[in-house]
Amino acid sequence: MRYAIGLLLLVVPALTAASGNAGAPEPLEARVLEVRVSGRPGGYTFAVRVQSPDRGCDRYADWWEVVTPDGSELLYRRVLLHSHVDEQPFTRSGGPVLIDPEAEVVVRVHVKPLGYAANALKGSVASGFVPVVLPRGFGAELAGSGPQPTSCWF
């Protein structure tokens, strides 16, 4: 009986920690939550609402971008100059995004040093945007394209 109780005392805390019940789990994935568009064809401003696992300059959402549906072409990138540890989720605007209203695009976020988040929004100015989970490696070659962050303020 003592052996069984001792084993339970060792196993239960380990199971609790492994299942995530030991405390609030830290979000590991960033996501684009919303895209609002203003302006006119060929010169839109996108206001993008992002949730990201920012901890400071060592891990933060360093840009959001607009890409073609196949991930082959970068249409616009909004570089973020600091982390948003105490401002989650946050919205930042950028443009002009040079697309037609019917052009379908993907809006996604990149996190330093984790890379692109799989949770993005896909759609058009005319029809709106819906959540999409991007496949692993989607448009990964665009990560080296400019503009790039040159520093992180805080």
Give a summary of the structure in a few sentences.
The chain is mainly beta and 154 residues long.
Q: Please, could you describe this protein's structure?
A:
Helix content is 11%, strand content 41%. Strands 3, 4, 6, 7, 8 and 9 form a 6-stranded antiparallel β-sheet that branches. Strand 1 (31-40) and strand 2 (43-51) form a beta hairpin. By secondary structure, the protein is mostly beta strands. The N and C termini lie far apart (55 Å). It contains 1 helix and 9 strands; from the N terminus they run αβββββββββ. The model is unreliable at 1-27 (pLDDT under 50).
Distance between the termini: 55 Å
The number of helical elements comes to: 1
Shape field: globular
The low-confidence runs, each spanning 5 or more residues with pLDDT under 50, are: 1-27
- Strand-residue proportion: 35-45%
Biggest β-sheet description:
6 strands, antiparallel
- Structural class assignment: mainly beta
H/E element order:
HEEEEEEEEE
Strand tally is: 9
Helix percent reads 10-25%
Mean residue pLDDT:
85
Radius of gyration: 20 Å
Structural topology:
Blueprint: H1 2-18, E1 31-40, E2 43-51, E3 60-67, E4 74-79, E5 90-97, E6 105-112, E7 115-116, E8 119-124, E9 128-133
Antiparallel strand pairs: 1-2, 2-5, 3-4, 3-6, 6-7, 6-8, 8-9
